[in-house]
Amino acid sequence: MKFLHLSDLHIGKNVNGFSMLEEQKHVFKQIIEYIKSELIDAVVIAGDVYDRAVPGIEAVRVFDDFLTELAGLNIFIMIISGNHDSPERINFASRLLSTQKIFIRGTFDKIILNDNYGEINFYLLPFVKPEFVSETIENFNIDYNSRNILVSHQFFTKSGVVPERSESEINPIGGLDAIDCGCVEKFDYVALGHLHGAQKIGAEYIRYAGSPVKYSFSERKQEKSVTLVELNEKNNINIKKLILTPVHDMREIKGELEKLLSDEVLNLADKEDYLRVILTDEEEIIDPMGKIRGVYPNVMTLDFENSRANINISDINPDSEKIENLSPYDLFSEFFLDINGAVMSEEQAKIVRELLESGANKENEAS
C-alpha cells in the first residue's frame, strides 16, 4: 500500500495580514497530481485541517473543494482533528462520509484496510491532552505482529533530540505538552501532525509531515513537502518526500533602502515573494513601507537594525520643568534629537509643523 502523509493544512490562515488561501489551493493541486502520478491508495491528514475552531466560509469552501477532488480519485481518506480544530465540527457527517471511503475523526477510531499482504490497522488518535496519550495507546490492545499505523496530532519528542520548532506553532509551556516517543516505537509507521517542519523524531518511521505552506518567517528556509509511505510486508517500508512549491516564496532581505531597491538585489529572486525587510539606514526615512512596497508588493513586516533601533526610550530622563516651557513643535524636536541623535531635516520639520497645525485647527473647530 502507498499512502500520503500530510498535516497542518491550517486552511484559512492569515500571515501578517496576508491570506494564505491561494497558496493553500496551489499546493492542494500539486498533492492531487502526486496522488495520480504515484498511484496512491490512501491519504492521511494528521490534524489542524483549519486554522481556527470556527473556520471562515471561504476556508470551508477550499477544504470542501479539496476533499471533493480527493474523493473523486477513489482512494481512502483518513483525517483527524488537531489542536486548532473543533473535534465536533470535524466529526460532522462522519458516518455518512465513511461509506465513501472518507474517515474524518474528532474522536479515537480504528480503520482496517487491506492490500496484497493482508490487513493494515490505522489507529486515528486526534489531539487530546498529553497526559492521556500513553494510557490511550495502551488501551488499544494492539497486536504488534500485525502492520499498524498511528495517526496522531501531538508534540512527540525523544531524549537527546531537539525538534525543529516554528513561530506559527503553539509553543509548549515548560515542556509540559511533550510526550516521549517511546510509547509509539512499536508501530510500523507513526504519522504525526503539529510541528510545521518535516522531520523524523528518533526513528525514520516516526515522522512529522510538516505544513504544506510556510506560515512564519522561522519556516522560510524549510522545503515544504508531503511524505510518501510505501508499506509492504511487515518490517518493509519505504519513505520519501514529495516537494511542494509555493506561488510566492517567503524570505528575508536586509540592507539599506537604496541597495534593496536596486536592480542588483531585485534580480536575485521574485520581487513578489512574501518578505521580511530589515532596513539598516542610519538616516530617517519618510514612509519606508510605502517606498519598499512600491517595488516589493508583498512585504509582510518591516524592521530596522541601526544605532537608533538599539536606543531604550525608558533610559531617557526628561527635564519636567523644561518640558512645561516648550511648544509642541519644540517638544517633538527635542524628542527626535534624543532618539535619533540628530536634528530633523527641513522636509521632516515641515511635515511635523503641518501635522501640528492641522491638529490645532481641529481642536479649535471642536471647541
CA-atom Rg in angstroms: 27 Å
H-E order = EEEHEHEHHEEEHEEEEEEEEEHHEHEHHH
Q: Outline, from the CA principal axes?
A: elongated
Number of domains: 3
Q: Residue share in helices? A: 25-40%
Under CATH, the homologous superfamily of the largest domain reads Metallo-dependent phosphatases
Number of helices: 11
List the helices and strands and how they pair.
Elements: E1 2-6, E2 14-15, E3 18-19, H1 21-37, E4 42-46, H2 57-71, E5 76-80, H3 87-90, H4 94-98, E6 102-105, E7 109-115, E8 118-125, H5 133-138, E9 147-153, E10 155-157, E11 178-180, E12 189-193, E13 199-201, E14 203-208, E15 225-231, E16 237-243, E17 250-255, H6 257-260, H7 263-266, E18 274-279, H8 288-293, E19 299-304, H9 320-324, H10 328-340, H11 346-366
